[in-house]
TrEMBL record:
It catalyses: chorismate = isochorismate. Residues 128-384 form the Chorismate-utilising enzyme C-terminal domain. It comes from Paenibacillus macquariensis. Its EC number is 5.4.4.2. Belongs to the isochorismate synthase family. It comes from the Bacteria. This is isochorismate synthase. Signal peptide: none annotated. The lineage of its organism: Bacteria, Bacillati, Bacillota, Bacilli, Bacillales. Keywords: Isomerase. Gene3D superfamilies: Anthranilate synthase. It is an enzyme of class 5 (isomerase). It holds the Pfam family Chorismate_bind.
Length: 403
């Protein structure tokens, strides 16, 4: 499939050709994909149950084999998988798929710079309740049964007119040049669109080569260059953030080791940046024992990482269920694609929003470990919301809301 990729200049046209409700758009540092229509959809497992992860790689392989036998020549599955592995995913074989190289992040992308000034905002939970939730997590940490919990909050924004999802996707693609920009139609309930620009690669596979790039430990960017550099240096030196990052890296490496004949895990994290955040990053590179191992098999083994759930995973998930006041849905799940060879790319579904008509539901989370405070974690989530706020032209107004 990757042999059919076309010149990078075509990638911008794929972005322009995206249509909400009927397209899947994916842009990574290496390639761009526009998939259209639905030829086949992954349904519940063979027992009719909703457990999303049960035999998922095998079910995807069977789906692709079935579509091939039917004469359909598109051998790729695209879509999203939710945070809660017992809930249904949104995975389809499209009617058509067009590939290109990476997007050209320049004036060729039509960017909507209009500022939205008329809108309503609802925080779920309210800031004070989120800070209270952080304190509840800290009490659990003090008991010693759980070492980290990722606590999230959401913001609901309602506009007077229908959201320009295509314009939002363009802006995200332009503003986030090194990550994974996506737009996907979700049809499990009422039709809506998941759109976002994730900085975090869960796992990528090409032949026997695999890459995972966990991020954990974050700091907000500053428009002042001197202050911005100070924050980056402080993050890299922070014992709290380095501990949080090390826990995630160790878990990712442990999940991948059984599949690999070699796995290279750097001893020290590096810094990566987006327009709004600094992150501690570790790129893990490996070679598979068996080329037949699917990228989805690796993704299922990794999900959810401590970067989006906590550690130990099962206990952290229970704490999340007890404290969070909303359903995450596809937030902190994964989004991407897989072909019939088992190759593909899956990003962690963060810096995202669900769009329905005139409304958007935005999400952000923060890893709570020893040394965390409600005030600091609230500030971190506010900074993470900025990816979507900036793309919507809401930056100044929501800066004031988050103060």
């Amino acid at each position: 499939m990757l042999k059919n990729e076309v010149a990078p200049a075509v990638a911008t046209q794929l972005l322009e050709d995206y249509r909400e409700g009927s397209s899947f758009f994916w842009s990574s540092p290496e390639r761009t994909l526009l998939a259209r229509g639905v030829h086949a959809r992954l349904l519940s497992n063979e027992h009719g149950e909703s457990n999303n992860f049960e035999n998922l790689p095998e079910r995807i392989a069977e789906l692709l084999a079935h579509t091939k036998k039917s004469g359909h020549d598109i051998s790729v599955v695209v879509g999203a998988i939710p945070f809660d592995y017992t809930k249904p995913s949104e995975l389809i074989v499209p009617m058509s798929a067009e590939w290109a190289g990476p997007l050209l992040h320049n004036s060729e992308i039509k960017v909507n710079k209009s500022l939205i000034t008329d809108y309503e905002v609802q925080e779920v939970p309210e800031a004070a309740e989120f800070a209270k939730g952080v304190n509840q997590v800290l009490l659990r940490l003090a008991q010693g049964d759980v070492q980290k919990v990722v606590l999230s909050r959401s913001i609901h924004i309602t506009l007077p007119t229908v959201v320009d999802t295509h314009g939002l996707l363009r802006n995200l693609a332009q503003n986030n040049t090194h990550g994974y920009t996506f737009g996907i139609s979700l049809l499990n309930e009422e039709p809506h669109t998941l759109v976002g620009a994730s900085p975090e690669l869960l796992v990528k596979k090409a032949g026997i080569q695999i890459i995972a790039n966990p991020l954990a430990g974050s700091a907000a960017r500053s428009e002042d260059s001197i202050e911005d550099e100070r924050r980056a240096v402080a993050l890299l030196a922070s014992s709290k953030d380095r501990h949080e990052h090390a826990v995630v890296v160790a878990a990712v490496a442990a999940a991948l080791h059984p599949y690999c004949k070699t796995l290279v895990v750097p001893d020290e994290p590096s810094l990566v940046q987006t327009n709004t955040m600094w992150h501690l990053s570790t790129e893990i590179v490996g070679e598979l024992d068996d080329i037949r191992t699917s990228v989805l098999e690796l993704a299922v083994a990794l999900h959810p990482t401590p970067a989006v759930c906590g550690t130990p995973t099962d206990l952290a998930r229970e704490v999340i269920k007890e404290i969070e006041t909303f359903e995450r849905g596809f937030f902190t799940g994964m989004v991407g694609w897989c072909d019939s060879n088992g190759d593909g790319e899956w990003a962690v579904t963060i810096r995202c929003a669900e769009v329905t008509g005139r409304s958007l539901r935005l999400f952000a989370g923060a890893g709570i470990v020893g040394g965390s405070t409600g005030e600091a974690e609230l500030a971190e989530t506010s900074a993470k919301f900025q990816t979507l706020f900036v793309a919507m032209g809401l930056k100044q107004q929501v800066d004031e809301m988050g103060e």
